[in-house]
Amino acid sequence: MFCCISGQVPTEPVVSKTSGCLFERRLIEKFISENGRCPKTGEPLTKDDLLSVAAGDASTIRITPSQATIPGLLQSLHHEWDAMMLEQFTLRQQVAQIQQELSHALFQHDAACRVIAKLIQERDSLKKRVLAGGSAAPASAKKNDDESKADEEEEDDEAPVLPLIVCDAIDEHERRLQQQRKRRDPPVTLAQPSALQKYVEFDFATVHGNSAVTALTVADTQGHRTAISGGADGKIVRYDLARRAVSGTGVGHRKAVRAIKDIGDIVVSASDDTTVRVWRAESGVLTSHAVIKAHQAPVNDLAVLPTEQHVISVDDAGKLILSDIAKGFAVATADSEHSRLGMTCVGLHPDGAVAASGSAGSVLLWDLRMMDVHVKLTPPGRSSGSITALAFNEDGVTLAASTSNSVVVLWDFRKVNEPLAVLTIGGVPAAKAVPINDIAFDNYGSYLAIGMDTVRLWSWRDRTELATLGSHIGPVTGVAWGADAKWVASSSLDKTIRFYGME
């Protein structure tokens, strides 16, 4: 046991009633005399709140200053040591606070520089208009105004909204992935269509008790398979397939979890309680590392940028927000006149520079550098229901959007005027359509998993259905692929997570 101030084994240990922290009595009493609060939690603390810890029999006898040869010098050294420990602890706290304040200040400074640059451009543009058209007739004023407005729009298009450090990271990752994609072919280990046709359920789990499972993602690295789920109970649960047991639980959301993503030891979740939480896995417990409170409405979906440093999330109020995962605060916020009724889902291009958001009857493509809508896609005919899920193919040119009318619409970025294909899932008439709640491509874009009343696996190349997995007795809320499409996981309102693969 070590003192929370000096980091040394205390000779006269005491414990705080309020925080449970262990201290050296002389150090904590001096700190209380000077500050009147707990050095760890910052809560008010008095000497009466300290409890002595009974020590066992010890063979070591500490020589006090009165027993030393030069007691005055030893007593002075004791005082200097205590003062140094208190000062060092205070300095560590101040350094941590200054680092956080500095990061905020850097982002604010960068944003301020961009605003100033934009204002200077607008000022210069106005000066040119005044000098060029100052003696013009009123009839030409409207024409000049229109031209200057067009010039300003072009200038605005050139100035990114995100901080330069974020734009540079997106650009660098985009260039690297584009080069890799040209040389990337499906591996020989990728599951074949004939194998998917034989998939059966090999495991299931009920990890949220009597609560429905409302969000799902999986991690499959070096043969270690894990499912991470969010429930209507607001909990986050890690399930280890090898041990068939829960390996971590996180408690913090007050309402149902709507989306969840995994980044190694970090998990990011979105909830109806209007928050986005960042979790870290520590000793079998998912600890809430940060709470992003940028939304004012229930958060419906989120996606993590390939750089793994930022996350985008959408809500019922039609807001798209990009947040810093490590620092736990919003970097940029955007909305559109086409999303006033709210955004239901979001997807991210594999390169990380383009995002897609779904709403009632349309899909919006966003340039993340500008945080602005560039293209609006409208599904045709029967497929014009509410957009429920979005998924980008790893080929970098295809987007899939599912609707509440049992339809999946495919778009090719190179020809966005018309859909590439419209797939009617299950072949049911519109009057009996079943909402599709989630879709997902495998990590090589060869197959598409569709979650509705059942789980359906489609071949991307042939546009044909390979298998229907119907173990759930309730609507499917999430689907996810394991590595190389060797297995599939699904969650449902029937309170279970089910896993499918070869027997």
UniProtKB/TrEMBL annotation:
Single GO MF descriptor: ubiquitin protein ligase activity
Glycoprotein listed as a keyword: no
Main location: nucleus
Pathway membership: Protein modification; protein ubiquitination
Domain U-box, residue spans: 1-69
Low complexity bias: start-end ranges: 132-141
Residues covered by region (Disordered): 131-158
Family listed: Belongs to the WD repeat PRP19 family.
Function: Ubiquitin-protein ligase which is mainly involved pre-mRNA splicing and DNA repair. Required for pre-mRNA splicing as component of the spliceosome.
Protein name (record): Pre-mRNA-processing factor 19
